[in-house]
Design brief:
Strand order of the largest sheet of chain B: 1-4
Number of strands of chain B: 4
Distance between the termini of chain B: 57 Å
Structural class of chain A: alpha/beta
Strand content of chain A: 15-25%
Oligomer: heterodimer
CATH superfamily of the largest domain in chain A: Response regulator
Number of helices of chain A: 14
Largest sheet of chain B: 2 strands, antiparallel
Mean pLDDT of chain B: 89
Low-confidence stretches of chain A: none
Low-confidence stretches of chain B: none
Shape of chain B: globular
Helix content of chain A: 40-55%
Helix content of chain B: over 70%
Order of helices and strands of chain B: HHHHEEEHHHHEHHH
CATH class of the largest domain in chain A: Alpha Beta
Chain lengths: ~400, ~300
């Protein structure tokens, strides 16, 4: 009797184990997302997080996927010290195989050593400072978006081509802002533009009236701003207060819906920005991305670099599918990426892990929205920038 | 430099100086009546600005669109609630420590400042992000050459001036003010004369904190943006202004506020001109360095508090 009961219990137990085994046949693999989820540029960070999350969700829905994926996300607050903390936390966790990391250049460049030391392969999805990939030759570091070198070259040529002559440059004094200043100035001089004044400002400065009054005295055609959205919003709105009548030219750092929303339709109108990659809105993959993004009902828009985060996550997922959840193998596999299709165009990593993108897209704010220059009424000549 | 540009610099400086002066007046009032330094003052300003913003959003939700009503209600709610907060801080944190070493008050208010700051960051919806502050004032502008005068800046400047004048009149022309001055001069004698000491202290803290709330609203309306960290630097600057002017003296605080903004402007304009290649980011370094020199020159401040020690 007792024996029989034991047999039944074991049988039930065994069937449960088998059932559980079938249901959880896929091993769970963890990825990490790191970006600014709070603070001034959090709109971009959250857009990136949602986009990476979308890539993971879509992969989990795919019956052909070998593993089941989980995305862990950490907030770097766009601050280097916090970024190193969370990067160490992620890299020290052996269950995490790879990372989609950093929007802010200051955080991305601060953490490269950490990833290298722990051997965690990462794909940077938004930071544009050249030295993130080119400063060292770390196999673990890759970047799916371009550097600020390309965008400033295009920006300088484009703007001088529009017959603008005099520039005032305002940049934040972090490595990010200084980099923009350096490359833009270099290319602008080559293109024949004249820089009549350069102002370095702190990254959390509130009042720009003194700098802008001085800029006004210099009578520039264009105010170039090398920095991120929050400062961009402040400077543009204080320009209006002081009656500085010039075109506001930003970088990829202000290409976010938060810029246009923060300023309102009227003030944002005619502001410019430049960003690497093809205009994803127009690529077939981009439409797929936008459609799926809407379906998931995220509360926030993907923002400018969302598609890059999505592409970065997909590169990692493809690599893991191919070589298995092993950091070393994934690092090697990512390094081999060549002409791979993604929603931001073809991706090829050079020997520094940098995606070679030559294409830069120009954007202008028209009626409170960033519009690709060629499609805008400015591009068609229907509307004119200030001073034209 | 043309006259127009010079006026523009001066006007910018006045605007900034007005906000600093409003913070400094609070510091100096608190020091005057109780000889304490309340370091949470800058953060009270920030909470005031957020209260104003929350009130605005509430009014929007109720469908009240009249700008005048919105401004009035925002100002009233922010000022009164911060006045209340100031009085509560005085009653439960500052007064009980009256006989303890002054360092304790300084520390406890410094910590309170952090609590206020972090609370807004954590509990206000999306509190760590900068918040756009509504543009409620008319934006018409007149240009005189290269000087652009905007109606909203002018209104803010006048409002600040009116607030400071009102405090001045309250202190110098009313019975309440007389009581405040009496307590400031000698608390014990004032008590013997039948002045309700605790009430006067609470009132003074309420007035100073209400001023901070007004400063916060002005800051928001001027820059059209607030964030949880604005109180930190404004607090330090306001305190320095009060010290340079002479802690305990209301005119000294006002003078100190304008002096500090003038130093910042001069720093931003003159430094790059004198040393090509320096960025204007050094303006704060310059302003604070000059403050240090001032302190060495006149340790009691530009206008020292009148004190007669009798043995």
């Amino acid at each position: 009797m007792n024996f029989k009961r034991n047999a039944i219990v074991s049988l039930i137990g065994l069937s449960l184990v088998v059932a559980a085994g079938v249901a959880g046949a896929k091993q769970t693999v963890k990825l990490v997302f790191i970006g600014p989820l709070t603070g001034g540029v959090s709109a971009n960070g959250i857009g990136g997080r949602n986009s990476a999350d979308l890539a993971v969700r879509l992969r989990n829905e795919d019956p052909k996927a070998k593993y089941s994926y989980e995305l862990v996300s950490y907030d770097d607050e766009c601050k280097p010290n916090i970024a190193v903390q969370v990067a160490t936390k992620a890299a020290a966790d052996n269950s995490i195989i790879a990372g989609v990391t950093h929007y802010c250049s200051v955080t991305a460049v601060a953490t490269v050593d950490t990833y290298h030391k722990f051997g965690l392969p990462v794909v940077v999805w938004g930071a544009v400072l050249p030295s993130i990939t080119y400063g060292n030759k770390y196999a673990e570091i890759h970047r799916v978006n371009g550097t600020m070198i390309n965008q400033n070259e295009v920006a300088a040529k484009f703007m001088t081509g529009m017959k603008f002559k005099r520039w005032v440059i305002i940049h934040d004094t972090t490595d990010y802002g200084k980099g923009h200043n350096q490359y833009f100035s270099e290319y602008l001089k080559k293109a024949g533009g004249q820089i009549v004044g350069t102002f370095g400002v702190t990254a959390d400065q509130q009042d720009f009236t003194t700098e802008l009054t001085k800029a006004k005295e210099l009578k520039p055609d264009v105010i170039y701003f090398g920095g991120l959205t929050p400062l961009g919003v402040r400077i543009r709105s204080q320009m209006e207060k002081l009656g500085v009548n010039a075109v506001f030219e930003g970088t990829s750092g202000i290409k976010s819906d938060a810029f246009a929303d923060g300023l309102g339709k009227q003030l944002a109108e005619g502001s410019l920005s430049f960003i690497e990659g093809a205009p994803w809105e127009k690529l077939p993959g981009g439409l797929f991305f936008a459609g799926k993004y809407t379906l998931q009902k995220y509360n926030e828009p993907p923002e400018a670099y969302g598609p890059f985060a999505f592409a970065a996550a997909n590169l990692i997922l493809d690599a893991i599918e191919k070589v298995g959840p092993n950091r070393k193998k994934v690092t090697a596999e990512l390094g081999k990426t060549k002409d791979k299709d993604s929603i931001v165009g073809k991706v090829t990593f050079d020997d520094h892990g940098q995606n070679i993108v030559s294409l830069i897209t120009k954007y202008v704010v028209q009626d409170g929205k960033w519009v690709v220059w060629e499609d805008s009424e400015y591009g068609s000549g229907k509307r004119k920038l200030k001073g034209q | 430099m043309t006259l127009g540009l010079l006026s523009q610099y001066i006007f910018n400086g006045l605007m900034l100086g007005m906000i600093y002066a409003m913070v400094a007046v609070g510091f100096t009032l608190f020091f005057g009546v109780l000889d304490v330094i309340k370091f949470s003052h800058g953060d009270v300003l920030m909470v005031g600005a957020f209260t104003g913003l929350a009130t605005y959003l509430g009014l929007q939700a109720l469908g009240i669109d009249s700008v005048v009503v919105q401004l009035l209600v925002m100002t009233l709610v922010a000022t009164l609630s911060m006045a209340l907060l100031g009085a509560v801080i005085a009653k439960y944190l500052v007064l009980p420590l009256r006989l303890a070493p002054p360092l304790n008050t300084l520390l406890i208010t410094l910590m309170l400042g952090t609590v206020l700051r972090e609370s807004v960051r954590l509990f206000y919806p999306q509190g760590s992000n900068p918040k756009p502050f509504p543009r409620l004032l008319p934006t018409d502008s007149i240009s005189f050459g290269s000087f652009t005068l905007r109606a909203d800046s002018m209104i803010l400047l006048l409002a600040g001036l009116a607030a400071i004048m009102a405090v001045h009149l309250l202190i110098n022309r009313t019975k309440l003010g007389l009581a405040i001055r009496a307590v400031a001069q000698d608390a014990d004698t004032a008590r013997i004369m039948g002045i309700n000491f605790e009430f006067i202290v609470l009132l003074t803290f309420a007035i100073g904190s209400g001023m901070a709330a007004l400063g916060g609203l002005m800051n928001g309306l001027y820059y059209n943006e607030i964030n949880f960290g604005i109180g930190l630097l404004l607090g330090v600057i306001g305190f320095s202004a009060a010290v340079v002017g002479g802690l305990g003296n209301i005119y000294g605080a006002i003078l100190g506020g304008f002096l500090f903004s003038a130093l910042q402007s001069v720093g931003a304009v003159a430094l790059p001109a004198l040393f090509p290649g320096t960025s204007t980011a050094y303006k704060d370094v310059f302003a604070f360095a000059v403050v240090i020199i001032f302190m060495a020159w006149r340790p009691t401040g530009l206008i020292a508090e009148k004190k007669s020690e009798r043995v």
